[in-house]
Design a protein that fits this description.
Length: 149
């Protein structure tokens, strides 16, 4: 695990700034954004250790046209708007979230050991897996930019 100030990340304002920036950069990237948004799902990250939620809405209703474009999508500090259930919920801790985005965990082992939980239909969950790789490249730069690493 990279040397990151996880205690700072556990503060709501830092958590939302870090992961809001990560997901914004991914959805706003002209190459990555449309691919991420093509998943057409709502994902909520529930942080069990700090009782926070972050929702990434990639549904068609957030698109500015018939096809997803960079800049579409929404990042919500909290659960999905209107009380709707997310398509996929990922329950984990701040250290596990960090390890997930730096690419240092084996997802299958983490699931078996209950270090994180995935809730939702398997086909929707599997649509998310290819979206992880671009984040592995962006995440370290955001940590450095925000003074967390």
């Amino acid at each position: 695990m990279a040397d990151v100030n996880l205690e700072a990340v556990k503060k709501p304002e830092t958590f939302y700034r870090l992961y809001g920036t990560l997901f914004s950069k991914l959805k706003d990237d002209p190459e990555i954004g449309p691919e991420v948004l093509e998943s057409d799902i709502v994902v909520t990250f529930t942080l069990a250790d700090i009782d926070l939620r972050l929702t990434v809405d990639m549904t068609r209703k957030t698109w500015s046209g018939p096809y997803p474009r960079a800049g579409d999508g929404r990042i919500i500090q909290g659960p999905p708007e209107g009380g709707a259930a997310p398509d996929v919920e990922i329950v984990l801790t701040v250290p596990m979230m960090h390890r997930l985005w730096e690419g240092s965990i084996n997802l299958m082992v983490a699931l078996q050991q209950r270090e994180l939980q995935l809730k939702g239909p398997i086909p929707k969950i599997t649509r998310l897996l290819p979206l992880l790789a671009p984040a592995y490249e962006v995440y370290p730069a955001i940590l450095a930019e925000l003074g967390l690493a």
